[in-house]
Amino acid sequence: MKLSRMPLLVSLLVLIFFYLPMGMLVLQSFNQARFGGDWTGFSFRWYSELWARRDIHEATWNTLRIAMTATAISMVLGSVAAWCLHRYSSRLQQLHRSLVYAPLVIPDILMGISLLLLFVHLNVPLSFNTIIVAHITFCVSYVALVLLGRLQDFDESMIEAARDLGAGWGTILRRILLPLLGPGLAAGGLLAFTLSIDDFVITFLLAGPGDTTLPIKIFSMMRRSSPQIINALSVIFMSVTFAIVILSQRLIRPKP
Amino acid sequence: MKFSRFFSFAGSALLAGFFAGCGRDDRPVLHVYNWSDYIADGLIAQFEEAFGCRVVYDTFESNEALYAKLQAGAAGYDVIFPSSYYVSLMAEQGMLQRLNHANMPHLKHVDPAVLAAVSLDKEMTFSVPYMTGTTGIAYRKDRVPDFEASWRVYGRSDLAGRMTFLDDMREVLGAALKTLGHSLNSTDPAEVNAAADLVIEWKRNIARFETVGYKAGIASGEFWVVQGYNGDVQMVIEDNEDEDIVYALPEEGFAIWEDTMAIPAGAPNVELAEQFINWMHSPEVAAANIEFNYYHCPNTAAYALISDEVREDEMVFVPAETLARGEQIRDLGEHLSLYNRAWDRVKSAH
């Protein structure tokens, strides 16, 4: 029987559809022309202009600070949430579960506006901290979700066995929980990290003066700046994001 | 173990995040909210040095974004750069401070001719002009040798697929209103609807509504006729040393716009904000900004300091008799919904 070529064709088309625009972007970032378009010569001009832009460096640093802080805190909160959801199944936990799921389906704009109203109402000045709080609210859900999946394969009898043999909770946490759940936790954290870096809508609404993050910066540059600096920046950004995704996939993969 | 390294990484990242805020200097801080790439390179650093302060410089991409940000309660900016038609709206809503001219001696340089002809806030009560420019048509004369300076060019089906409009309600409906001989701030429903009908007719011939990519498009020859801002078009011409791209101001009329500097209500450092606005109108600084932006900063003392090439460029310094054909975009107030409806009709038409 002759195998159909259709699946191959479709996957190729899908791959082209996904990755051709990114390929074009990478190519254009090395184009000498200020407004892109026609190829006028290979050049690192935009990378060196990017290097000289203090405002973009600040925005990058802001983005990383927010992402790292939000990730670290949401990893702690998310793992505690996942543990409770896994261990207990009372009515309260049912409510807890839907509360953890909610930020995954609530549109960004709604979340941003409601947080903004809250902060304005409470007279909390918009700042770095308001952005971080907002990012934690959606990052926690992702961390908890990834970890919940991991917990489903987790054998509880190991904990019982350990306790039978006289291990305290500290030892159990260190010797059993962390080694087994660590990769899932790390993967959730990396997912949260990329989401935090990418977020525009919520960050835009909650940023105070001076809290420009990269997505906000790029958006404001669209109108007047050379798109080529943005292309160069996107290439660097893309490489970092890909590296993080690859790293997180390696962590998720069960050890042989 | 892999994960333990990850945890030490996450831990140090957390600490870095928390402590990065420490070690700040105690110089006074000025918060500026401006359009991106709208000030000559290095000027901000010069200001910081001259006034012993630190400038926090944020950028926005539209008046709507600026307005939304301030309206939502983002207090904390000292100097903002709204377009003049937004100044009237913001002033009405008490979002701007009255300016104290005694603290800004350089305002004497502001060009009275521009204040009279272009500015909406002619007394500089709430805002000081920063840059003015025009919205016109750029075309490739190698492709469209028989171009006439008229918005009617968008009716030419032989150029179909080679033309773009800005993706901007006021600019596009304004062009159509001007073509029909009306004010581009018309509040007569019949006039605005007729303008929308005309744009729908034109829409058949345009490639798309494009605010960002038209510069690359005309540079590469993908587009032959584009609606654009004079400074943007000039940047394309300069950068490509392209003799074939020409900027024209249509005979029916065109939009004149002005971006201004203003101090929002509740600005934390009004004194420094006044010094900044004053300094932006010192002749050398204004001259540097004209040459950087290819827009007209109305500062009479700066005109002598810029190169002859820029000063004699009619794209930057529009002659008075040409400027007389232009009209300022004004705030529409309650009539905005009339335009929104017309624009929705344009956007959804096939």
Draw up the topology in text.
The complex is a heterodimer of chains A (256) and B (350).
Chain A: H1 6-28, H2 45-52, H3 54-87, H4 91-105, H5 108-121, H6 128-152, H7 157-164, H8 169-198, H9 201-206, H10 214-224, H11 227-252
Helix pairs in contact in A: 1-11, 2-11, 3-6, 3-8, 4-6, 6-8, 8-11
Chain B: H1 2-19, E1 29-35, H2 43-51, E2 54-60, H3 63-71, E3 79-80, H4 84-92, H5 112-117, E4 127-140, E5 163-165, H6 169-179, H7 189-203, E6 206-209, H8 214-220, E7 225-229, H9 230-240, E8 245-248, E9 254-262, H10 270-280, H11 283-293, H12 300-303, H13 308-311, H14 320-323, E10 326-328, H15 336-348
Parallel strand pairs in B: 1-2, 1-3, 5-6, 5-7, 9-10
Antiparallel strand pairs in B: 4-7, 4-8, 4-9
Helix pairs in contact in B: 6-7, 7-15, 8-9
Write up what this structure looks like:
The complex is a heterodimer of chains A (256) and B (350). Chain A has 256 residues and is an all-alpha fold. Chain A has helices spanning 6-28, 45-52, 54-87, 91-105, 108-121, 128-152, 157-164, 169-198, 201-206, 214-224, 227-252. Chain A has a single domain (46-252), classed as MetI-like (MetI-like fold, Orthogonal Bundle). Chain A is 78% helix and 0% strand. The longest helix of chain A has 34 residues, at 54-87. Chain B is of the alpha/beta class. Chain B has two domains: 26-132 and 257-317, Periplasmic binding protein-like II (D-Maltodextrin-Binding Protein, domain 2, 3-Layer(aba) Sandwich); 134-256 and 326-348, D-Maltodextrin-Binding Protein, domain 2 (3-Layer(aba) Sandwich), CATH 3.40.190. Chain B contains 15 helices and ten strands. In chain B, the strands form two sheets. In chain B, strands 4, 5, 6, 7, 8, 9 and 10 form a seven-stranded mixed sheet that branches. In chain B, strands 2-1-3 form a three-stranded parallel sheet. In chain B, strand 1 (29-35), helix 2 and strand 2 form a beta-alpha-beta unit. Residues 1-23 of chain B have low confidence and may be disordered.
